[in-house]
Design brief:
Elements: H1 2-20, H2 23-28, H3 31-42, H4 45-58, H5 60-70, H6 82-88, E1 92-94, H7 97-102, E2 107-109, E3 111-127, E4 132-135, E5 141-146, E6 153-154, E7 159-164, H8 166-197, H9 203-229, H10 234-241, E8 251-255, E9 260-265, E10 272-273, E11 280-283, E12 287-294, E13 307-312, E14 315-324, E15 335-342, E16 353-370, E17 375-377, E18 380-386, E19 390-395, E20 397-401, E21 405-410, E22 417-419, H11 423-438
Antiparallel strand pairs: 1-19, 2-22, 3-12, 3-16, 4-11, 5-7, 5-10, 6-9, 7-8, 9-11, 12-15, 13-14, 13-16, 14-15, 16-21, 17-18, 18-19, 20-21
Helix pairs in contact: 8-9
Length: about 450
């Protein structure tokens, strides 16, 4: 009697569980636990199977629903056969053409190329010596106005500062006096020449006037040259001859000899400056140099005109070797070398350190890709191959390399399209997809 009641309770529980959707819990119950429960309650499995057949007839519809829903584990994956579909999608990243473009991913076909034999050396970014000027005042005086500060952009001939100078005033005054003396001597000479031509005056008076005019011209030329030595051109000198120029006589205009930016300023308002110290440093940083040193053992392979790949905080850039010293520095036991870099965007800053790889020769290889195309996945090098649906992860074997490219030995075929930029984004997307599958 007691055993019949227990069976009735079990039947009732199964029916309730089937109707309430609790069959998902039954699906995850380990089979060994279920067997233990039946053995304890009923004593043998055979009788239980017969009893279960009766339950299936009564609740057949409920069991069919339970089986269909048990195929889903609650995470969108199938319990039986779902793993095969999951493995089929492993290593795949679904991206449309619009998404690829938006992510800035560039595609290129794998093919043959050249690997450069390189000499790698450390270096330092400096301003190009032929595009830099240290501006020293040509006269001593007091700074009355500083027009430019650090970082300011200047044009060629633009005034940087005004310096009040007695020497400048004296130079301009000497020029103006010589100018007037020359004009007066010319008038006297012209008069005496006219009289001499008419045989009215003595030859001695004519020759004296001519000599005086020549001396006046020489003195005028000397004063003009002095102004030019102080940094004044003919246009500026002409302004001193006009009316109202007296106030400008005592000022020296410190001007920039080239276009660029102010990278150093060594004067302050009211300070006395002389002709021995630099007041401003102006540099055109659209082109910079990488100063480096070549070891004697590498000098036979390094020639002026070779290209170099420079890597630093400014990124990566290609430069040209423009100078290799013919002499060895006795202290460093190396030869100075200079690499020229274009810097229109201002990404390379003087003072920062960089590494330069000078390409000295090249080797032909069958398959080559940029280093940016390679990503380490689970400790192995991999490439992302473009497919109709997106990208496929492909583990490859790499070989020789230089600073920019790497050889592919196996894992990919000639002509296959691969991602050569934006691969870090693809690696991140692959990690997210694999994490979702694992979940």
């Amino acid at each position: 009697m007691k055993r019949s009641k227990i069976k009735t309770l079990l039947l009732t529980g199964v029916a309730v569980i089937g109707l309430s959707g609790a069959f998902a819990w039954n699906y995850f119950t380990p089979p060994s636990h279920a067997a233990e429960g039946h053995g304890d309650e009923h004593g043998h499995a055979e009788g239980e199977e017969k009893h279960d057949e009766g339950k299936e007839e009564q609740h057949g519809h409920g069991h069919e629903d339970a089986k269909s829903e048990a195929k889903d584990d609650g995470h969108g994956h199938e319990a039986d056969g779902g793993e095969e579909g999951e493995h089929a999608e492993e290593g795949m990243i679904a991206l449309t053409a619009e998404q690829v473009t938006a992510a800035g991913i560039k595609i290129a076909a794998v093919g043959p190329g050249k690997l450069a034999r390189e000499v790698s050396v450390p270096g330092k970014i400096v301003a190009a010596a032929d595009r830099m000027a240290q501006i020293v005042p040509k006269v001593g005086g007091t700074v009355t106005e500083a027009k430019k500060n650090l970082g300011d952009t200047v044009e060629k001939g633009e005034v940087l500062a005004l310096i009040e100078s007695r020497e400048m005033a004296e130079a301009v005054a000497d020029y103006l006096a010589a100018k007037r003396a020359e004009e007066l001597s010319l008038t006297t000479f012209n008069r005496e020449k006219g009289l001499w031509d008419k045989k009215i005056t003595a030859e001695q008076d004519y020759l004296s006037a001519k000599n005086a005019h020549q001396e006046a011209k020489i003195r005028l030329d000397l004063t003009r040259q002095k102004l030019q030595a102080l940094g004044h051109d003919e246009v500026m000198i002409k302004t001193y001859e006009g009316a109202g120029s007296a106030d400008r006589l005592r000022f020296h205009e410190l001007r920039s000899p080239l276009p660029g930016r102010v990278i150093a300023r060594e004067l302050t308002l009211g300070e006395y400056v002389d002709t021995t110290h630099s007041a401003y440093t102006v540099a055109d940083l659209s082109v910079v140099w990488v100063e480096t040193a070549i070891a004697p053992g590498d000098l036979p392979f390094v020639k002026e005109g070779q290209m170099a790949n420079v890597i630093g905080s400014g990124g990566k850039a290609e430069g040209k070797l423009i100078f290799v010293s013919p002499a060895i520095d006795p202290e460093t036991r190396s030869a100075k070398a200079i690499i020229e870099l274009q810097n229109a965007e201002g990404t390379w800053r003087p003072g920062e350190f960089a590494t330069a790889a000078i390409a000295t020769s090249a080797q032909e290889v069958d398959l080559i890709v940029p280093k940016d195309a390679i990503q380490a996945l689970e400790g192995k090098p991999a490439i992302f191959v473009r497919t109709d649906k997106g990208f496929e992860k492909r583990v490859v074997t790499t070989g020789r390399e230089d600073s920019r490219h790497i050889e592919i030995v196996s894992g990919i075929e000639f002509g296959e399209p691969v991602a050569v930029t934006g691969t870090f984004t693809l690696k991140a997307e692959l990690g997210k997809a694999e994490a979702e599958h694992a979940h």
